[in-house]
Specification:
With 84 residues, this protein is of the alpha+beta class. The protein has two helices and five strands. The chain has one domain: TusA-like domain (Translation Initiation Factor IF3), CATH 3.30.110.40. A five-stranded mixed beta sheet has the order 1-2-3-5-4, with helices on one face. α1 runs parallel beside α2.
């Protein structure tokens, strides 16, 4: 199985690169990723799955997170900012 690339930007800010992971894996992975975050932490999720900009925020919001930003960063790539 492929490994999810995680980078620590600062003490409360992480970036998770899931580009190359086909749908629906980003939607399913976000639940376990959010559970690892402490309250107030931010995760920038990079994805290229076409349904992720809709599916990932829906899952994160249902878990009590906020989604201040969903930005297209390239042709078919997005950055989804999740704050727990």
């Amino acid at each position: 199985m492929r490994k999810i690339k995680t980078f620590k930007i600062s003490d409360k800010h992480y970036q998770v690169d899931m580009r190359g992971w086909v749908c629906p894996y980003p939607k399913y992975a976000v639940e376990s990723l959010v559970k690892k975050l402490n309250d107030g932490n931010q995760m920038d999720l990079l994805v290229d799955c076409p349904s992720a900009p809709d599916d990932v925020p829906r899952v994160a919001l249902a878990m009590g997170c906020s989604i201040p930003e969903v930005t297209q960063i390239g042709g078919g790539e997005w950055k989804i900012v999740i704050i727990k």
